[in-house]
């Protein structure tokens, strides 16, 4: 098996995550899909690290994880406060961008 | 294994890849297709664990462990926690409200995947160097030496980012009390003014026989009172209705007492709790149950 | 010294108009005094001029540079020569007399102070007009007299007819003013200067076409100001103003500004025969037009207005004859200033005594009640019809002579028209005279039921009338005997005797004959038979003449209707074409936006799809570029 398959898998997961972001309305699930996309990227980074034979890709993946953790913290806090004020977890309910 | 890594992988890894990759894709699909957010979260956690295995297989031992500990252990639990907070039962209706959104999204996702595949396929990725050399002194040591030398600045910045995120989360979820808290007297007066449920709500359970919180208390006519049960249970529909059961038990007890005393028809309500519970098979009790039903109608 | 001529009445106007009610009691005396100051200064300058040789009588005074721009030099500078000083004396002299007359005439008017302010303003503007040494400054005076005329015609603005008449005069004058401003612009582009001296010197080197254009524009200006056909319609209505105004502005001075302009620009017309011909035609047509209108009017002032129009027609005709006629145009202008002012003042006096009645059919037999007015009016009448020995005789006779002297067919036609005009003049003036002063009384009570009690006017009114009557009697003879006036003006206007096919005596004889015919006809019609106090229906011509020969109807049909139709069609074009384009653009943009708006549904997911799609397209493009 060629390790390139890891990249294909990463691409597939990324596309699935992106599609999920677009079709789901529950903001938490949308957020999960974003995480899925991030993980797909991480997989690609790790595969690239193997491909290039150095550890930089893993470092980037590591940073991605840290940033993702920070993002989740803030994002979930936003979701909670949004839910408190609107009593809804639907993305579509926050459609005030149109008159 | 390390030598082989340059061009191809071992058969074991291939088998592992194909099996786990299938599971990972299914998990991902389930993540976006499950109706309940909890299920989505669980599926995502599964996918992430599989990804952790892949990290390990790719020589990223540290990352694989971190993936399990941080992602599935911390982040996904945070997700579940928020799901619980927001409402675990709030299942998404999967009916699409924006016209054409689903098809457009699917088309975009599919097209995007095709494009990525094409990109990867076009790239000349024949030479895999493998991590044998990089991992010579140990994967963790290798990472550490990079983080604290080449990437030390980014590392520090990341620390600052984490602190900021923590503070931000606290600020976002913290609610400042803007008005004075109401005193007990004021709250009492308010309730009297609103005029509903002045006394405490009735306790669940019947005749102290069933004292679990999911069992409604019975009214004098034998019907259960919804008020006696916690609102959350009520909304979930998890109330156990034991009204007929209790009456049947009572009848059975009386029947037995009558049999023993050879004195038919006498009712002794103060007989106390029935220890012996083989009542369901009694035909008389069934008949009595029917009578009770008619009476309640 | 020359500036003082203008400054005195200007000061009067400023003081009277800004001074407020405190000046109500002395304002009229102040105004009259300042007019008299102007006259005295004019006299001093005149005597001063008499003491000099004929060639260096021109006085120049440069006051200040008005618009000093590179290549465009406009100065406030005055030029006093024989022509100007003649006008100065006429204007300030007659003006002073009329100021004096107005003291009595306007005695009962609450706004007398303002009236004198306007009169002074008029004097200042008129003096500025005749004293200016360049066309631009002349234009200032020209507009100034227009303004004063507007204010004075509409002086009784509470009467709608007066307000309308003022507006009409102003508007019609605008047409003429436009001609003058275009003429000035043409002069600037042609000669690069406005000064009389420079412009007139440069005419010799300029093409005839341009000069003709300038001449025609100047003629248009003269038509507007002097009420010549086709811009004559305002003068009759202008009689709504107080009578002294009619006498000063609309008989003696302002309406003659056109004649002044043409004579002043004589060099231009001399070099442009076509323009000159146009001038004579306008003069001849107006001469007959005014005379016919004068015959039909029953309103004494309007009859006199028709006469004014006709007499100015004579002057314009004379001015159009070129060097043969300039002198006579000015001479007739001066004598006309005397007798027409006198006639108007007489008419005012009659109205004063008859409760402001203007219909001559309700006069009659007034000679016994108003002897002074009768005598002065009568002298003016004799002067205007050209009774031998009186001033009109000398000046009008010369014009007729000059018309014949033009030579050729033109000369014959113009001469005959002038002769015919003289006959009609005799006719309508006799008619006025008979209807007013002779015959039986046809007095009727006025609207408030007051029976008129005709009486002689106060001294302040009669003295000017007497003085003007003296002028009407003597001026002509004084000017003509020994050709005094001709020699006086010759350095400015030059003179050419022409080549008359008829001898002077023949012309004079013919004039006398037509005079007698006219008077006799009028006497037969009005003197022998009683005058009906309601106007008979009359012939077609009479009816047309009563309506000012349909001039207003003509203007209405041609200008107003035409303008309306033009406006309507423009509005239609605006509504359909312009608005259509604008609204169509707006509607299509609106419709397009309405459709595009639906893309903006406010759902974040929708936007995310488009972003994602955009990224996909970008990647595809990148890949394709790579592949290629």
Automatic annotation (TrEMBL), chain A:
Q: Which GO terms describe its cellular component?
A: NADH dehydrogenase complex; plasma membrane
> Mind telling me which InterPro entries this protein's record contains?
NADH_UbQ_OxRdtase_chain4L/K, NUOK/Mnh_C1-like
Might you give the EC number(s) for this enzyme?
A: 7.1.1.-
User: Mostly located where?
Assistant: membrane
* Superkingdom in the source lineage: Bacteria
The reaction(s) annotated as catalysed by this protein in its Swiss-Prot or TrEMBL entry are: a quinone + NADH + 5 H(+)(in) = a quinol + NAD(+) + 4 H(+)(out)
What membrane topology was assigned to this protein in its record?
Multi-pass membrane protein
Q: Which family does it belong to?
A: Belongs to the complex I subunit 4L family.
- What's its job? NDH-1 shuttles electrons from NADH, via FMN and iron-sulfur (Fe-S) centers, to quinones in the respiratory chain. The immediate electron acceptor for the enzyme in this species is believed to be a menaquinone. Couples the redox reaction to proton translocation (for every two electrons transferred, four hydrogen ions are translocated across the cytoplasmic membrane), and thus conserves the redox energy in a proton gradient.
Q: How does it assemble?
A: NDH-1 is composed of 14 different subunits. Subunits NuoA, H, J, K, L, M, N constitute the membrane sector of the complex.
Question: This protein is called what?
Answer: NADH-quinone oxidoreductase subunit K
Organism from which the protein derives:
Streptomyces alboflavus
